[in-house]
């Protein structure tokens, strides 16, 4: 009899893992809470570092599945319970069984209204990086509430990341390079616009990232080393932002037409509830804790339950794909190789 | 009457304590300021004196304030104070009614049964006196019993923590506790020998200890009783029991209108000595209940200030949230005393802010002031301004381009000289706006404006102002069934006494539920206080989390507050219940009543112009 | 020394071998959060006093770390203790306490 594997979450990690599991001959099902697969990537316009359309990645992942394994959409798993040496997955009205479970529930975006002083939800034209991405998809350019193109845009790094005031000490890893990517895109869409990045540290750790940063410099993006302290609205709707130009050791204020908040990754709300039933605890940042950060990054501590993607901490797509494959190897070992 | 040397310890003790009290009372009163002495003199023969007498009886004998807080604790204090008082009064009456007893030495009524074995000359009063004396002795000993029990099992009494006492207090306490067992022993022995008691001591003497050699116990037991009394009296002036004579003076001085001033004074000494170190303040303090810091509360601070100087840690480890002030059964102005003590250790100089020149607030009719913290909560500003717009108020946002700090944070840290500069400067700037009224969303600023600015225009916290407008029918809200719990900011509730207006305002739009009895004057603190600098962010959010837990239950949709700092601090504690300022809730209800979208709403009159620097190059 | 009308060139370099880090150690011993600054500058940006004068809490802390004690002490007096910086600091540095510690060090040790 075919062994069943349940993949919770149909983002890039879930899709990749499902593909590999099916190829290994497991009866695999992906449970996705939304009505479409692809996770956050499906809502993104273009990806760093090479600015390839996100839809390409999602479509490739989906097409590779080719109907096997099945993706069950609009099915949020709310409970995960051990059931002998199997597991039971429940939604509000259905119940499924599996021999092994891969949790790939990903992340949620930081709710920018929690940084009240940044004015999100209070002033027009304070938007999040995700909203800007949508603008790129829909209009190909940043647009203000009144439909005009902004003449000056500031990107604020680390919104909801590296901030103990919102209990997130961790770095979300992808926002720096995303900001640089979006800044370039904004500049290309509106060549006459002035674009600023307000950063604390530029964490350009991946291949092609530093190149992207250099490209941004070449294209005239301004970098200010300082964290935004507060924004206020000027008459006429422009925004006044305050930061310290730490390189000059002087407070700095400037007016902008649009403020883009680079919202970080936060643990998905349902995930900690999901693992709570199994007796697992989140790690210090609230993401799923893995057995061994170096040696067992896919294992949760419960045999038969594995994790991949950004549900165990901020990840980019490449790392999510890699972690999915690594989890598949562990699942395969668990289901088909006799333990010594 | 046969004289006996055992009365000597008692007599010495009593003489000493009376002399000491008279001398100290005199010194304290003489050292009051001229103005204070004048008002006392003026009010001496008024109803205030009668009120003082009444309060002395109410608090000194019956301890009503403690009863209100904790019945068992109240009974303990009442049984000791009232019982002992009645024993003294009755003993005196008994001695004076006895033939040839009208004039006698002070020890005569105290040790009456020693001197008079035959009580029959009291005739028809014999029965009643012996009964009452036994009854009150029983009452006192029950109080001692509870006190003894409380020392070791304070939790049973509803007290989580009780004061840790110093040596002199332990000596006095031991003497006090021994007085009555020795008295019972002495009187029971005497009753056993001479039938001088009633249901209690006669029973003890004739039924319980009759087998003992009572003859040989007779003199030692009276000696022991006298020594216990004597040593208690000698220890009293140096121990916490000095509160007994001092509290009487305090009650009268307070009735006459004497208060703490901006620095320590003779009145402070009266207050310091009037503290009984009961420790009720410890359980009222968030630092103790939430953080386990239980050695910096007023009971210790006042003790150390009375004997010498409190340590820096003792002085600074306090949020000045004023919860202890409301809890103190003696009503000592703890917070002001601590602030005054802080002001003796100022760190900033009175020329710190000489750079504040050439700044002006714009002209205004109704001046709206957001304050420093307000600029970090722009939604409170926007919501309030939208509400003012809706009511048609012609306001000016005077610190839109930045405020000068109101001075409260410095003030709370004892930096009064530095604060004065800010107050002077800010006061003049506000005066120069020509405003006829000042509205602020910050209770910290409001508190400072009201207490130290001495402005001639009315000052409103926005909860008051918005309620006023609602009351006048200028603001109409949509009533929803949102379940809201209100958190009173310390500076607003205890500081300014504003507890009703925010509640009335909220009730006009949402369902207000009080889930805790720790509200209004007893409200909890958010933990973010500006009066303390030595708590960590973690400690602050621990307090905030505990406060949220007590304020909200699982039916609470929202926690409302009326202070930018409270909002920030409560929101920083991870919790599931959102925290909003009262203005944010009201503006939503206003928009709902107008079927308008809040996200589309724009502030109409955001004058003055927000200053923009030159283009950044 | 005879004044020849000129002086040897002053070296414009932080010499950490000679820097007086006693204030840093004194403060760190009393408030560990002093170590946690990531120099983001939020404190300076939001500062009420900094709106009117050249005052930077971030820079002040940095001066202490480089042994520029006099400068730090001189600067610390400009603070109004308003607490905005404490509310914005992403690392929960206990800013007001550090200002008070600098003031105390000034009083206690005449640094």
Q: What features would you describe in this structure?
A:
The complex is a heterotrimer of chains A (about 350), B (about 625) and C (about 110). Chain A is of the alpha/beta class and about 350 residues long. Chain A folds into two domains: about 170 residues, FAD/NAD(P)-binding domain (3-Layer(bba) Sandwich), CATH 3.50.50.60; about 150 residues, FAD/NAD(P)-binding domain (3-Layer(bba) Sandwich), CATH 3.50.50.60. Chain A is built from seven helices and 20 strands. In chain A, the strands form six sheets. A five-stranded parallel sheet of chain A has the order 5-2-1-9-20, with helices on one face. Chain A has a five-stranded parallel sheet with strand order 11-18-12-13-14. In chain A, strands 6-7-8 form a three-stranded antiparallel sheet, covered by helices on one side. In chain A, helix 1 packs parallel to helix 7 and helix 3 runs parallel beside helix 4. The longest helix of chain A is centred in the last third of the chain and has 20 residues. Chain B has four domains: about 180 residues, no CATH class; about 60 residues, no CATH class; about 100 residues, Rossmann fold (3-Layer(aba) Sandwich), CATH 3.40.50; about 120 residues. The C terminus of chain B is likely disordered. With about 110 residues, chain C is mainly α. Chain C has one domain: Fumarate Reductase Iron-sulfur Protein, Chain B, domain 2 (Orthogonal Bundle). In chain C, helix 1 crosses helix 6 and helix 3 packs antiparallel against helix 4. Chain C is globular, with a radius of gyration of 16 Å. The interface between A and C is medium-sized, with 23 and 22 residues.
CATH superfamily of chain C: Alpha-helical ferredoxin
Q: Terminal Cα separation of chain A, in Å?
A: 23 Å
**How many strand segments of chain A?**
20
Q: Write the element-wise H/E pattern of chain A from the N-terminal end onward.
A: EHEEEHEEEEEEEHEHEHEEEEEEHEH
- H/I helix tally of chain C: 6
Report the top-level CATH class of chain C. Mainly Alpha
